[in-house]
Design goal:
The protein has about 170 residues and is an all-alpha fold. The chain contains nine helices and no strands. It has one domain. The longest helix has 24 residues.
Length: about 170
């Protein structure tokens, strides 16, 4: 049985209100949670790789905006766990002087079109520019996933981001 397929038993009713839709605790061994975490990481890698190779099978249009909306929506479905630390990692990885107030999709465009004063305009230029931005996104997602999956990876990402912020405020 998969973690997501487990049964949830309702809590014993203490009152009429408590019995209406309130669920009790799930009793799931911690090892199953760990296995599910590894499975979900592998699952999102497969989905993102499929999206990268066959964008038209997943989305109506093959644009950077649609791909980032899909990735953002997937992350929201996973309660923010898929991209946790991604924006912080990007700011440090790209060596930006500013950028802490930008969404990760804007940071990707800055990486795809370095030196451009209008990266949104650049990506809209033609389908090759769209594809270049999409490839940059997935290249950086793979690199981020490798950094994050190392021992204490997420902790290291946030510590490095904290150092970046402290240097910036000096």
């Amino acid at each position: 049985m998969r973690f997501t397929d487990r049964l949830v038993e309702p809590a014993p009713a203490r009152s009429q209100n408590a019995a209406q839709g309130r669920l009790g605790r799930c009793r799931v061994p911690e090892i199953l949670i760990l296995i599910e975490s590894v499975t979900m990481r592998r699952h999102h890698k497969e989905i993102f790789e499929g999206l990268r190779k066959h964008t038209g099978m997943y989305l109506l249009g093959e644009t950077f905006a649609e791909v980032t909306a899909f990735v953002d929506g997937y992350d929201q479905t996973c309660e923010g766990g898929t991209l946790c630390g991604f924006e912080e990692w990007l700011v440090v990885r790209l060596g930006l002087k500013n950028g802490a107030n930008l969404h990760w999709s804007a940071l990707i465009l800055d990486a795809a079109f370095p030196g451009s004063t209008d990266s949104r305009g650049e990506v809209s230029a033609d389908s090759r520019a769209q594809r270049h931005a999409i490839e940059t996104l997935f290249d950086l997602l793979v690199e981020f996933d490798e950094a994050r999956s190392k021992h204490d990876g997420l902790k290291k990402i946030f510590l490095e981001y904290d150092r970046w912020q402290r240097r910036r405020l000096r």
